[in-house]
Amino acid sequence: MNGIRYGENLQVVPLLNAASISGTSKSAFLKVTNALWVNFLATWGAIDSAITFLVESCTANSTSGATLVGMAASYRLQAHGSDTWGDITAMASTGLALASTTYDNYAMIVDFDPRTLAEGYNYVRLKLSCTASTISHSVWGVMEPRYAQNLIPSSS
To answer: What's this model's pTM, rounded to 2 decimal places?
Structure first.
């Protein structure tokens, strides 16, 4: 049993299972109150129109009656089948638009510091929008909780 860890130091959460969208798709919210750092891992297939990504923070685990705020973050891109990530690049609080076909079959890691969240904004999600195409994609949340543990608490 030496070396078996099961990700006890990380919390990995499927936020949006593989789905096809046309228009806007939003991942589930991730509660980041006790997170040291937070990443989103998004993957998608072929695209034939621009795709936009936006990190949103919220005061609740629902948008009902809550205020959403766009968050600045950093990201890296990688083509599927490659093991070379692109440069760390800033993502504005208004989001990131990627051109069509240039970014077919890519993955993206989005990183942001949960300490930059405004008071009371303890939930975050990744929003994807496309203009015309149907895109197959998924989103995972990965974060390091302040306290490593065997019984990983819920993030929602």
So the answer is: 0.83
